[in-house]
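Hi all, posting the design record for the shared folder.

TITLE: backbone redesign
STEP: 1 of 1
STRUCTURE INPUT:
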């Protein structure tokens, strides 16, 4: 009973008079949409990371435990890290507002700490398909709001570019072709997953990379580590000449190439995964009933995607802000910085706000002084921030 009462805040949908639902959101780092959804009786709320690539709604195990939510089913799910058996609470409800709910949602309970640490931001769950499959979903980045309409509603698409999409291989994520041009002039085309939860521009799938021998054609690249739901994985970052979606072209673009042997980024027949650094440059209308996506450039459209200048990445953990990964053979690597070391200060600034540190590490052509703990020994290193590609 406790599960049913609480999760009435979270799935199928009931319209209560209104012709639309408006869900305000916050935008973290211009990449991640965070929705605050009420629980039953609006006594509490949950923050959900909105992800068009989330075929299943997920709830963090700690958030579930605090609210007395217990699994009543186990199921094998395929995700970015491959196959895994998950605890689930089935046939539940998700509350979108104090009066409007989506019913019939199966919610996976999982440890989301790895993703939260990598983002440096707290949230309670991930939601995507269980909203989009029930509504025409309109995302307005200027107003920072998501508008949900019944599928028979008449929605103006004036000023938007229409892109048809498909659901191949029983994967409920929009898929459509894009093209990329390498710096050597070679043009490649293939289908991508439209995945707003991926905090990058483009991730090229391992099979596509290998079939097209990209590592020998891409030119200069760096190797870094990224974190997905249950593991970390190595990726190569490089620059391409351009990326084109319909009539929109982005030039001189940093992209990533996967090395995964399982999971979505290892699927054959796909160019890769289009992520939030591109997706969020558009106001969006997604209509699953007609398999149509509509894009209109917004205020982020002209914002340049940042080239990597920091030779290491940060994460926020229980012990504080730590190094999450170091670029192989970089100055940081050569001077002894390693994954897991705790940051004490940067440029004499000591803070628990990871965004302050990240902003300091974006300042190209500046020198930064890093104090960190190597086990229990306090060490200091100076690094020059410069384009790594």
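Okay, here is what came back for every position:
SEQUENCE:
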């Amino acid at each position: 009973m406790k599960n049913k009462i609480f999760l009435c805040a979270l799935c199928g949908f009931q319209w209560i008079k209104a012709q639309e639902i408006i869900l305000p959101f916050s935008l973290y780092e211009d990449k991640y949409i965070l929705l605050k959804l009420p629980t039953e009786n609006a006594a509490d709320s949950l923050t959900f990371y909105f992800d068009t690539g989330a075929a299943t709604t997920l709830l963090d195990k700690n958030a579930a435990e605090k609210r007395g939510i217990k699994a009543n089913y186990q199921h094998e799910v395929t995700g970015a890290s491959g196959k895994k058996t998950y605890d689930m609470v089935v046939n539940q409800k998700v509350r979108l507002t104090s009066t409007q709910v989506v019913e019939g949602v199966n919610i996976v309970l999982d440890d989301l700490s790895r993703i939260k640490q990598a983002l440096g931001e707290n949230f309670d769950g991930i939601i995507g398909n269980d909203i989009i499959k029930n509504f025409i979903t309109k995302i307005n980045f200027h107003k920072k709001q998501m508008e949900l309409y019944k599928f028979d509603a008449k929605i103006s698409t004036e000023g938007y570019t229409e892109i048809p999409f498909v659901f191949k291989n029983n994967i409920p994520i929009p898929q459509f072709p894009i093209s990329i041009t390498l710096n050597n002039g070679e043009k490649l085309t293939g289908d991508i997953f439209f995945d707003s939860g991926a905090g990058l521009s483009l991730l090229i799938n391992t099979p596509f990379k290998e079939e097209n021998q990209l590592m020998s054609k891409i030119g200069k690249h760096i190797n870094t580590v990224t974190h997905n739901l249950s593991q970390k994985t190595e990726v190569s970052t490089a620059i391409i000449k351009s990326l084109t979606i319909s009539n929109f072209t982005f030039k001189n673009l940093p992209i990533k190439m996967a090395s995964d042997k399982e999971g979505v980024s290892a699927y054959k027949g796909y160019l890769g995964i289009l992520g939030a650094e591109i997706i969020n440059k558009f106001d969006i209308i997604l209509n699953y009933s007609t398999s149509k996506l509509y894009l209109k450039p917004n205020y982020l459209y002209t914002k340049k995607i940042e080239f990597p200048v920091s030779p290491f990445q940060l994460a926020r953990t229980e012990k504080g802000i730590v190094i999450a990964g170091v670029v192989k053979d970089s100055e940081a690597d050569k001077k002894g910085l390693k994954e897991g070391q705790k940051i004490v200060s940067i440029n004499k600034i000591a803070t628990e706000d990871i965004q302050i540190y990240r902003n300091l590490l974006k300042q190209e052509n500046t020198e930064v002084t890093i104090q960190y703990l190597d086990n229990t020994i306090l060490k200091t290193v100076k690094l020059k921030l410069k384009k790594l590609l």
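COMMENT: The first strand starts at residue 20 and ends at 28.
Let me know if anyone wants the other runs.
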